[in-house]
Write a structure and sequence with these properties.
mainly alpha; 5 helices; single chain; two-stranded parallel sheet; globular; 109 residues; 2 strands
């Protein structure tokens, strides 16, 4: 059985753009003994989060370009790995879980 580790977008972004807890995030990611997942959602969220930082004036356009390029390089070289899954089935299962739990637990998608 293949094992992978999932980090939320907020953790991964800290490894591409300096934030207060970037050092801790990088240490956590680098200490992983399993491949780090880069889902379809990450592929959209990470560059978008970096672009939002430029919009907010937190980084320069050059820093934005560098960060996005570094993210894409990490995907290309396999540092971040695409998991194998049926995306349609993932969303169907997520909908079933939402239907079953969100009303009682207050969870988000």
């Amino acid at each position: 059985m293949s094992r992978e580790i999932y980090f939320d977008t907020g953790i991964l972004v800290k490894s591409y753009v300096f934030e207060e807890n970037s050092a801790s995030a990088i240490e956590l990611i680098e200490s992983s003994v399993h491949p780090v997942v880069c889902s379809h959602l990450h592929a959209i969220e990470i560059p978008n989060a970096i672009r939002l930082k430029r919009f907010r004036g937190e980084i320069t356009p050059a820093e934005e370009s560098t960060a996005i390029r570094a993210f894409r390089d990490d995907v290309e070289c396999g540092r971040l790995q695409r998991p194998r899954y049926d995306l349609g089935e993932v969303f169907l299962r997520a909908e079933r879980l939402s239907e079953k739990h969100s009303g009682e637990m207050g969870t988000r998608s």
